[in-house]
Amino acid sequence: MKLISFNVNGIRASVGKGLHDTLRALDADIVCFQETKATPEQVAAALKDANGYHVNAYGAEKLGYSGTAIASKGVRVYAE
Question: Is residue 35 within 8 Å of residue 7, measured between CB atoms?
């Protein structure tokens, strides 16, 4: 099993800089993202083209700050 962790400093900006290509190249089973700086809905939209991954995200109370997400292949990850 391959687990990768990224501090993306903005998930939407990272997608614009080639995050999807990086995810395909790394072929990780689980990818953890910190500092997404997005709502869960924005994270889901940004990663909608990350084929094969189930995405769960948590946003900060203050918009544009913090936020985390987990993208996993084949297994849905649920957080309370």
Answer: yes
21-62, pLDDT tens digit by residue?
999 999 999 999 999 999 999 999 999 988 889 999 999 888
Identify the residue whose tokens are 């190249």. 25
Structurally, at CATH architecture level, domain 3-73 sits in 2-Layer Sandwich (3.30)
Buried b (16+ CB within 10 A) or exposed e, 16-41: eeebeeebeeeebebbbbebbbbbbe
Tell me the C-alpha distance between 74 and 80, whole Å: 20
pTM of the model: 0.85
3-state secondary structure of 71: strand
* Spans of all domains in the chain: 3-73
In whole angstroms, give the CA distance from residue 70 to residue 80: 13
